[in-house]
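Pipeline run #58 for the internal structure catalog. This entry was flagged by the ingest filter as a single-chain record with no existing model, so it goes straight to prediction. Upstream metadata was stripped on purpose; only the residue string is passed forward. Reviewer on rotation: M.T. Logging verbosity set to normal.
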Amino acid sequence: MNTQTILITGATDGVGKLVATGLAKQNNNAFILIHGRDKNKVDKVVNEIKTKTNNNNVEGYVADFSSLNEVRQLAKDVLSRHEAIHILINNAGAGFAAPRYGKDGTETRFTVNYLAPFLLTHLLLPAVQKAAPARIVNVSSAGQSPIHFDDIMLDRNFNGVTAYTQSKLALIMFTIDLAEQLKDKNVTVNALHPGTYLDTNMVQEAGITPLGTAQSGADAEIYLAVSNELNTVTGKYFNVKKQANAHAQANDADARKKLREITLALTGLGERIAV
């Protein structure tokens, strides 16, 4: 990890903050890039992590992931300072209790949990490939449900839980596709469920009693990000630290292709994402 650059999205509280702190502590020469949507909070957490870890290479970036334009700007900001990204952890997420619509006027969970990391990852992909061997870790959930292809934003029949579980399956489907595209590039891509109802703001705001600690989730994300045991493992879904089976639709190549086509249209990437 000596000269690595690591970007963790959604890193100003909960699991993401603990992941950033843990990785900064493991090596105080690594560049730790943390993302959040509130500048004051980002600045505060950057200083906290520097103080706790003696790593002065901690940088903060601001973007609201319910706005794809802000995601694009985030990518520009990161690339203006870093030409190589060794580890990208797509940790940011919107839970059951998030507002129905975000800045773009699109369904918040699908945009924040899936469209934003899809877009950000592809915009940063040249830097990730330049850093190879590199890793991409997508934070999904054990809560997964099939994609509603005929009403992907659930405009006709909205349900917060369904919106969340659909978005998390979409992220796993993206993981499998991207891993296949990058299989010869020395870049691994894996997804995980970090733990059920961990003690985070997202869980508390949903009125759910926590069943696990945020630190246990952070430990799982760090494991996928740096463990030597996973040097050649790619395109897999993990339940915490163990490989597991995702929802059956994740293994449906036709469904993944359909989702990809819809996503390219929604993100405006088109053919730009050819690897």
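catalog note: Residues 47 and 192 are 29 Å apart (CA to CA).
catalog note: The mean pLDDT is 93.
status: ready for reviewer M.T.
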